[in-house]
Amino acid sequence: MKAASTSHEIVELHRRLERLHRLAWWLNSAAKLPGIRTRIGLDTLLGLVPGGGDLVGAGLSLYIVWEGHRLGVDRATVLKMLVNVGVECAVGIVPVLGDIFDTVFKADLRNITLMEQAIQRRAPRRITYPE
After folding, report:
1. What is the distance between the alpha carbons of residues 53 and 69, in angstroms, rounded to a whole number?
2. Contact call for residues 111 and 64 (beta carbons, < 8 A)
3. Phi, psi of 3 (to 5 degrees)
4. CA distance linking residue 15 with residue 19, whole number of Å
5. Confidence of residue 125 (pLDDT cuts 50, 70, 90)
6. CA of 63: how far to CAs of 21, 34, 56, 82, in Å?
7. What is the DSSP code string of 42-75?
8. Each residue of 76-96: pLDDT tens digit?
């Protein structure tokens, strides 16, 4: 596994992570529920769609895991990410309670954090992103 070393590689890594973070935000925290401090995302709304909503949400979550793998995240971290998605999917099939769990658990944002930590660990020095 090779750490980003050139300026171009660091910029590209930052761009890809930012895109994945934005996707995770849309899935888990895009809107604030009035009157409470919890944010919901598209994943919560997809879970309300009978039949295939949870499958679409799981597919998008697995895309984030796949991109982590493509970015060179270590196997242990990818497995943790898969467990997060699996837990969210398993609990998500329970009507109403699963949707509430999805809203609170936020597997995609957890996975982005795991991914960023793994990338920082493999870097020879702390990556600083150009502004």
Report:
1. 25
2. yes
3. -80, 150
4. 6
5. low
6. 12, 30, 11, 11
7. HHHHHHTSTTTHHHHHHHHHHHHHHHHHHTT--H
8. 999 999 999 999 999 988 888
What is the value of pTM for the model shown?
A: 0.85
- Provide the residue count of the chain: 131
Please give the sequence-ordered ranges of beta strands (E in DSSP) within 33-126, or none if there are none.
39-40
Residue 33 has pLDDT above 90, yes or no: no
Q: How far apart are CA 109 and CA 111, in angstroms?
A: 5
Structure confidence at residue 1 (pLDDT): 43
Helix axes 107-122, 97-105, angle to 10 degrees: 30
**Element of type H or E holding 12:** helix 7-28
Residue type at 67 in one-letter notation: E
Q: What angle do CA 109, 53, 25 make, to 5 degrees?
A: 20
Alpha helices in 29-52 (DSSP H): 42-47
| Model confidence at 74: pLDDT above 50 | yes
